[in-house]
Amino acid sequence: MRGEVFWIGESRYGKGARYGVRGDDGETYWIDEQHLGAEAAVPAPELPDPGEPLAKGTRVQITRGEAAGTLGEIFWVGESRYGRGHRYGIRNDDGETHWVDGPGCEPSDAPAPPRTAPPAGERAGDDFADEFADPPSVGAADFDDAPLPSDDDLAFPEAEHDDEPPF
Fold it and tell me: Is the pTM of this model over 0.90?
């Protein structure tokens, strides 16, 4: 097992030190000094080939974490920030977004729920459709031809000056 030492103290179970190690698998291990070795003595783990990433638009089921069992569609594909592999942005059927590393999802044959047409005058997924449906037009008549003010036209408040420096 590989891991990172996060605590060192005196062993209560014999002579020497005892170590708290957070394993690469996420588990915490408490190890006596005689059972701990340098990383150089441990062979590097073989990482599985991540293969080709799933395509955008693929219907998947999330298999790990709090969202396990959730169905959705991949809308973003990139490289994982946590080692070799792929990372996916998945939008579930309710429109919520989930970020999942490659092993945390798998393709699904489950059908997507039917999409309903938005009411007349609205666009799907646009909460501000009414606000931006007909933007106001701006023409030359909306601007006057008055010149912009110069520095001489601007009023500045009088500054107060003391004879002595502030320090």
Answer: no
